[in-house]
Amino acid sequence: MFSKLRTRSALHHLAIVALLAATMGARAETVEVPVGQQDQLGEIAELRGLKKDAVTTRLGEPLGIQGPVGDPAISRWEYADFYVYFEWDIVLHTVKKHRG
Q1: What is the pLDDT of residues 55-85, one digit of tens each?
Q2: For position 79, what pLDDT does the model report?
Q3: Quick one: residue 51, left, alpha or beta (phi over 0 = left, psi -120 to 50 = alpha)?
Q4: 35-96 has which fold?
Q5: What is the pTM of this model?
Q6: Closest Cα to residue 62, out of 53, 70, 72?
Q7: Domain boundaries defined on the chain
Q8: Between β-strands 90-96 and 82-87, what pairing exists: parallel, antiparallel or unpaired?
């Protein structure tokens, strides 16, 4: 009985050491936004929470509209440099288009 407890304890400690070793290999990536582009990103980020008519007033008519799809209804408006995602009538998120 005593040897079973030692074996369990040893396996438990080994599992913890293996878990810690695995997490030490994890790395974070730093994303840097050039200073010249920070204003553009901030401008479109300020749209979150606005209604569709406010976005149209601020940015004009979109180049294209996709959706709505699903429940809740999600739609996407396309502008020259970014997309605006709506849930029903409210801006959820803005995504800058990839240029590359």
Answers
A1: 999 999 999 999 899 999 999 999 988 999 9
A2: 92
A3: beta
A4: Beta-lactamase Inhibitory Protein; Chain:B, domain 1 (3.30.1450)
A5: 0.57
A6: 53
A7: 35-96
A8: antiparallel
How far apart are the C-alpha atoms of 34 and 93, rounded to whole Å? Answer: 21
Tens-digit pLDDT profile for residues 22-48: 666 656 666 665 555 555 556 666 888
Q: What number of H helices and E strands is found in the chain?
A: 3, 4
Burial class (CB in 10 A: 0-12, 13-18, 19+), 84: buried
Least Cα distance to 40 among 79, 91, 85 occurs for 79
With CA atoms as reference, report the closest residue to 98 among 75, 76, 82, 78.
82
* Residue 20 pLDDT class (50, 70, 90 cuts): low
